[in-house]
Automatic annotation (TrEMBL):
Source taxon at top rank: Eukaryota
Biological classification of the source: Eukaryota, Metazoa, Cnidaria, Anthozoa, Octocorallia
Pfam families (UniProt xref): TPR_12 (PF13424)
Keywords: Repeat, TPR repeat
Gene3D superfamilies linked to this entry: Tetratricopeptide repeat domain (1.25.40.10)
Name of the protein: Tetratricopeptide repeat 28-like
UniProt KW Signal keyword: no
Amino acid sequence: MKDYKSALESKQKDLEITLKLFGEHHSDTAASYNNIGITQDDMKDYKSALESHQHALQIRLKLFGEDHSDTAGSYYNIAATRYDMKHYKSALESYQRALQIRLKLHGECDSDTVESYRAIGVIQRALKNYKAALKLHRYVVQTRLNKAARGVLP
């Protein structure tokens, strides 16, 4: 059985310590907010999760700017929470932002980039855009098969 309450308490304690050590505008602080958001999402406390992920994003934007893998990760996590809330259009926008950053930084075949394509395919299916969803899922499968054939793990 997963003890999300204890996990959340531990992550909140981690945030308190991180804030004391580094202050609000530090990458470890953003990571702490991100981790809290993931746990809140697991607990189905989507409103709190979204707030935590957005807080992490704001810190990361100030520290790193738009074109950074941690910033892309924040957009991705915001999208995942919005998906769980069934806010598919806003989830799609956030997944697309994550994808654009990942493409710029890492290219088409990076595992995080491919994961962004997969997530967008899931959103397209939820939005009943079945042709777009199928195209994206085929692309993901083909990319993963190509990587496996080259001996590159996803």
